[in-house]
Amino acid sequence: MDGYTLTKEWFAFASKETDCTPMHTATYMLLVEMNNQTGWTEDFEAEMRAMKKILRMSRRTLKTVLDDFENWQIIKTIPAKNQYQKMRIALSHFAYAKSAIAKNAYAKSDKANQSAYAHFAQANCAALYNNKINNNKNSGENAPARTREEILKNNFFLENAEADAFQEKKKTCAQKRKEDFRRSVLAFPQYPDEMLEDFFGYWSETNEQGVMRFELQPTWSTAYRLDKWIKKEKRMQDEQTVRKLQAATGYHSDENLDYSVPL
User: What confidence tens digit (pLDDT) does each residue in 72-112 have?
Assistant: First the structure.
């Protein structure tokens, strides 16, 4: 872990995170510098009063920023045990940043989806209960005590239903993002189809968190990247042609030319 890597990956994360503000950037840069001064220890002391003075922030604002970092898993705070000790902060490795971009993209839409699915699961619990009551009535039996409460409080069922819904939504979202990216690439018919397929295959490669390679770039323009791609391909083809000619003729540099012989 070093300052250059953390700074570079912070700005890559900040460009994707819509809730990130200049206050977050200033605070994070201060934390990186403080950790640098301690020789990149696992955690370091952080005094709120000194940080407020440097950042020109109120205690409340600084506390909100640090809470955001904690929620984004950027830092881990270790509260002081008493008034004579200072709070300690541990900077997280930025491995999370590649997944946080995608995770934050799902979070807002999935919240409503999970809530709806929970209501659906609860309705199914109620249906199971009513069905059991009817069966008991038909058989002349009384409904067992607390059956409804036990079914509606079946957290295992509800939690698994929500988890399944979230994973399905996440998978659908990843597929849609990939399809959208493919359409954006194929929207340039002036380039050869084979080149577009190679371009899409390279930049749509995903990591362990399901984030595509192009989504990890701080900035992205499909048109600009395609132009660079075809220029690079042409340059490589030209270099390959030159090497073949040199191998066929034996001329590898101007040293082999005899300038005394007229052309």
Answer: 888 888 887 776 668 888 887 554 444 444 445 445 445 55
Tell me how far the alpha carbon of residue 86 is from its chain's centroid: 32
Reduced to 3 states (helix: H, G, I; strand: E, B; else coil), residue 11 is helix
Closest CA to 97 of 4, 178, 16, 212: 16
Which residue's entry shows tokens 């390279």?
A: 202
The residue written with tokens 């002349």 in the block is 140
First to last CA, the chain: 61
| Cβ atoms of 89 and 77 closer than 8 Å | yes
Cβ atoms < 10 Å from Cβ of 10: 19
- For 10, the 3-state DSSP assignment is helix
Higher pLDDT, 44 or 165: 44
Whole-number pLDDT of residue 100:
46
DSSP result, 58-99:
-HHHHHHHHHHHHHTTSEEEE--SSTTS-EEEEEPPGGGHHH
C-beta of residue 191 within 8 angstroms of C-beta of residue 230:
yes
Q: What is the pLDDT of residues 48-61, one digit of tens each?
A: 888 888 999 898 89
What pTM does this model have? 0.39
